[in-house]
Every structure is written in C-alpha cells, then in structure tokens.
Amino acid sequence: MSEEIKLMKGNEAIAHAAIRCGCDGYFGYPITPQSEVLETLMEIEPWKTTGMNVLQAESEIAAINMVYGGAGTGKKVLTSSSSPGVSLKQEGISYLAGAELPALIVNVMRGGPGLGTIQPSQADYFQTVKGGGHGDYRLIALAPASVQEMADFVGLAFDLAFKYRNPAIILADGVIGQMMEKVVLPPFKPRRTDEEIEKECPWAAVGKKKNRERNVITSLELDPAVMEERNNHLQRKYKTIEENEVRYEEYMCEDAEYLFVAFGSSARICQKAVELARAQGIKVGLLRPITLWPFPTKAIAKYADQVKSMLSVELNAGQMVEDIRLAVNGKVKVEHFGRLGGIVYTPDEIIEAMKAKIM
Amino acid sequence: MTIEDIIKPENLVYKKPDIMNDRPMHYCPGCSHGVVHKLIAEVLEEMGVVEDTIGITPVGCAVFAYNYLDIDWEEAAHGRAPAMAVAIKRLRPNKLVFTYQGDGDLAAIGTAETIHACNRGDSITIIFINNGIYGMTGGQMAPTTLEGMKTATCPYGRNTKLNGYPLKITNLLKELDGTCYVTRQSVHTAAAVRKAKKAIRKAFENNLNQKGVSVVEIVSTCNSGWKLTPEKANEWMEQNMFPAYPLGDLKDTTGDSQTK
Amino acid sequence: MAKIKGAIVVNKERCKGCRLCVVACPAKVIAMSKQVNSKGYNYAQMANEDACVGCASCGIVCPDGCISVYKVKVD
User: Fold this and answer.
1) Which residues does residue A216 pair with via DSSP β-bridges, in sequence order?
2) Which of A222, A314, B50, C52 has its CA 20 to 30 A from that of A210?
C-alpha cells in the first residue's frame, strides 16, 4: 500500500509508522503521555496483517529486555515510554549499546524529577545524550518537532540503528506525542524474511548453523585488553556516526544577528518567535538540532562567527545549553530560557527572554 | 583382555557431548553447573535441534555458559532472561528458547519477569539452578537459602525474622496457568542425573510442541559457597535441601508423566 | 557366561579432582592420582582396572565431562 494522509496524534503516528516500516515487534508498558502508542497497536492488531508482534509487558524493565532479546535475534523491535519509565529502561539500554544491538526506544518526555508531572518537558536531554545508563556509550537521538516527524523518524531511526548496530532513540515530548496534525504515513514496507535477516545480521543469535561459530550476544568481557578494544571499537563507531549523521534545520539564519537553538516542540514555538521578533526588526534565526546526538556542534560553532549571542530555549533548567557553550567555546554569549513545571512558553515570552538575557 | 583392547572407538559408551567444547569451565571442582550444562548439550544433540536453539545465560556463575556449549546465546541482564525468552519465542516461535538461571537471578531480582513469563504461557523452558546461595559474588544469602543456613550476609544463619523465609518459588510457579510442566530434580548421583536428563528432554519437547512454560529446577550444590567438599556437599544437600525442596514433578499437564 | 569388561579414559588436564566419580563408582575402580595436572589438581584414574564394568556412572556425574567410558562383552 502507498502513502496515506491522515489526521492523528504523534503517539498514534509512531504506531502506524512502526507497522508500515516492517517492524517485527513492539514491547511496552503504559505510561502517560505515550500510552496511545501501545493502545493504537493493540487496536490495529498488526499481527493479523504484517505479522508484527505487540506485547504489553509487566514493566518497563521487562519491555526493554524483550527488545534486547528480540534485537539479539536480528529482529526490528521497539519500545516506547515516558521519562520515569525510560529511567527504568536505562539498564537495558546500556546492555543494548554494549552488545551493539539495533533497536528503537521512544521517549515521550514528561516533567521530573521523580514522578514529576505528566505535562510536557524536555528534561531528559542529559539522560538521552550523556549516557543515562552506565558505561561509555551513545544513543543515536532524533528529536521530532511535528507529528510528521514522529512518523518519519521511526523508519529513519531503524535505518540508522541497523546501519551502525546501535540503539536509537526518538526523544519527543508530551506536546508532540499528544497533539494532532496532518501526517503523510509512509508506504508499507514488508517485514524482512528470516533469510534476509540472517544475511543482514550475520551476528544474530538465530540458532547455530554448522558452517559457522556460535553467535553470542553479550556485553561482558573480563579480559581487560579485550574489553578496552571493545570500548575503543565503540568509540570509533561513535566518531563515524558523529562525522556522518548530524542532522539539523536552519530557519532565517542567513542574516541573523541572534540565534535561538531549540529542539522538538520548543523549536516550533521559537519559529513563531523568530517571525514575531523580525516583525519588530530584530534579526534572529533558529537552529533546530534534529539529531541531539550526534550534536550539530560544527554548525553552531560556525554561527559563533556570525551572531552576537545565542539563546537555548528548552523546557528544562538548562541542559542542551551546555553543549551549545561547548560548541561556541566562549566566542559569544549563550544563555538559557526554560520553563520547568509543564507550562509551555509563548513566542512573546521567548522574545522577552531574548531581550532580557542576550541583547 | 587388556585395557587397550577395551578402549576402542567401537566400545565407546559414554563421552562428553560434542557441543560441549574443549574450553575448560570456570566452575569450582564438583559444581553442579557442569553436569547440567552437559545434560542440556546431550538432550539438544539427541533431539537434533542444535540449529534451532537459542539459550539465554543469566548473571551469576553461569553467565559464561555461552563459552562452553556451542549453540547461539544471548546474555541477559540480571534476572531479565525470562522477558528476553518470551520476546524471542514470540518473534521466532519455531525455535527452542530456554533460559538458564540461578536462584538469585530467578527468585530475587528477576521474580517479576519469572512470574509473568510463567503466567503468560509462551513455550519457553526455564532451567533453574537452586543451590541456596549466591556463588559468583562470594556466597551471600539467596532467596532460597535455608533457615539457619550460614552465608556471607547471614553469617549467624538465616534468621527468618530478619530475612524472611526460604522462597519456594517453584511451588508458586506450578500454580500459574501458563506453566505446563514444573519439576524439581537433582544431579548428585548417576540415577538422579538420568532422571534430570529425562526432565530436561521433556521440557525441551514441550518447548517445540508449544505446550507452555516448562520449569526444571535442579536442586544443586555450591560446595565453595557451602564450604564443604563436593562429596560432603552432596550429603548436606540430601539431608538439608531435599526436605525443604523435595524432588519430583510438581505439575504436568502435558498428558504423559514419564519422569515420575 | 558372558562377562562385561569396562574401562575409562580420563582427560587429565580437564579434571579438577572433585572426586565425585570416585564416590559414584559402584565397583571402586577410581582413585585420585598422586601426581597433579598443570592446574595443580590430582586427577581421577583407574586404580582397580579389573573391576570396571563400564556402567558410566563416573562419566555421568562428572561435572567437567572428563571421562569417556568403554565397554565390551567378553565370552
């Protein structure tokens, strides 16, 4: 089947896109504000059509380990959750990264710390791009700013995950997950056959054939020299990803004297703020990181030679701002503006913050 | 007749199974793990299903089981093997998917995953090594540690007021509708090993016949943790473990009770 | 009358000297060596060759898969 235009929530778009991109399995546990992913899948019953499995696990911990188990057999599997649930998944995510398994995690963020609030937040930036779980590892992190991107990034995240044998994460927030927009759903792509999987993933644990050594999915290695080489290998892989997979979008940056940097729903609001500010004669542009890791460090560094100052607009206490400061390395002033309780800033508030903090 | 006349290929009646490789196992002398590994290898070979088997190793002494049996493996986070097995079985229903777990892995940190996997009823097999102690971390108290039994974290003996009671998890699992075969075996004598092998065979057949969860508990020794010789550990197990964890089938809904 | 004769071959390097085979043998065939292997373990060996009937109990209980068992009928 071909493309289809629909009106739906971001969470629903994740579910539809997963089925359409030939996903083999979803394992999740309900948590606001992302429960529609599981609900939508259970309503569609894709096991009757594409053969995709859907399972409500007993916990987020079980769900991520189901993903780990399934990914270890070369299958295309995902889980979704929201902040407290993603905290529970961190052990499994670290194991996925350590065992170099391709998989997709979707985090539709809510406010924290602790049980926090079910309202929108972007406070899991650090958790997503700085580790989250234990050990030296990276997740390929995509930050959608629309329902369309929720749909598009499922396929993209899987492509990148399999290309690099690395878990990928879609970091959305309650706004993107809950809002309804027009979305063009991608055409159906058939699930890979077992033969295709064995060809694409010769490392997968699918049952040992006589003509090869056993395949072992593990992150454990007690020989220090071998462990160091494993880690060096991971770091080399991360470097390759940093060189090749940075994605970002620029809006009215050509003549900008000031720069907003924002991702996800914040970028949507900043886009309006740019338009309103320009109507007031303020030349401001917006840089929207699409990949939070790898971070668009070089692109931002380039603007340090052009703009007077930058404002990182995030629904948190100031997280991405640290990476922007690292990118500009002191060349220009970089400040942060955020809200912390689930209240989303208006474009006017952002302009006021810009005037107060960086002009 | 000389020894050389007897030791000829045509007279061979017992040997290490082929898929148990030559790599020396890291287990302590006399450890039950080796025997159970061997039984799994023998059964998989005899069933002719090596190419269709995916094993899941735990965290604990048996974490390195994947080094010794030449099958495909996944190594789980502590306690999570049953969740992984459920997903693998759903995604690859024709594979023989089994977990190999110790008492801490299965009955402490992984209790939720164990119970829900057994309740859901996917046809996986759980091989459960119960030696009443944490071996790999140096002999700490397990959920299955007996009352009064001394370990590194209950050095004066397990006090039920302080630590609760030994968890008879297998008795719980037999109550769940998703399990089809729940049995408790041991490997301390040749006769016991033969019975345990039959139980594993049956559990693996249930696995491929999609009958539900099979749980094979092996009441085992940890002679290092128990601070006994392998021989004395077997005696201690018979005297102390078997009364708390009596051997035999706890449940069999498969219709052929051959292992009684 | 036909008599059963057995023999075992122990992989000395693999043996950890746990003695479980000694205990399991109904015919008291096995004893531990005086020598040690490269890991420092005394290893199992046939001490009473004539008594072995090839029942394989030793091999079955051996945790390390060290013992191969041979059996032949003698007329």
Assistant:
1) B73
2) A222
